[in-house]
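Hello, quick one for you while I still have it in my head. Could you read through the record and tell me how the tokens relate to the sequence? No rush at all, and the record is pasted right below.
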Amino acid sequence: MQIRVITRKQYHCPHCRGILSDACIAVNPFPEIPCPSCGRLIRLPSIQKEDIPAPNERKERRYPVSLKVTYRSFDRFFNEYTTNISKGGMFIHTKTPHETGSSIDLLIYVTGLDEPIRITGEVVHRDCFSLKKEDAGIGVKFISVDKKSKKMLLNFVKSHKYSL
């Protein structure tokens, strides 16, 4: 089966790469708008457009899994929860505006395991100021997963009737 990827345009702040919604841009009558992520004023002609896969047309299937995730960022430790997970990454529910492109070391706590799963990831997407509170968070792409951790995560997903 061949997967067809549909693309659409997404607007990014040129300063922090935060995502700007179409609605935010459309309702603004001024030549500059404040970025919802970093607060800096952006001239409308300087907004960067990027092709991105449509939310439901990803290359890899996402599975709705809520797992506790801890990591260190901004010289603080965070305890958050995943919203979904795929072979290549996960979405973590958070209101903290992490820097796109930053690397984070994650500990994922899976029910039934004695130790957390260790994964290094890269923040590839953030939407920490979403109008819907449950949609706020960061998309993290898996960069480095050791064999033991990958096997434990796959076993967990398979045991819950999912298949990655």
Remarks:
- The chain has two domains: 7-53, 68-159.
- Helices lie at 22-26, 147-159.
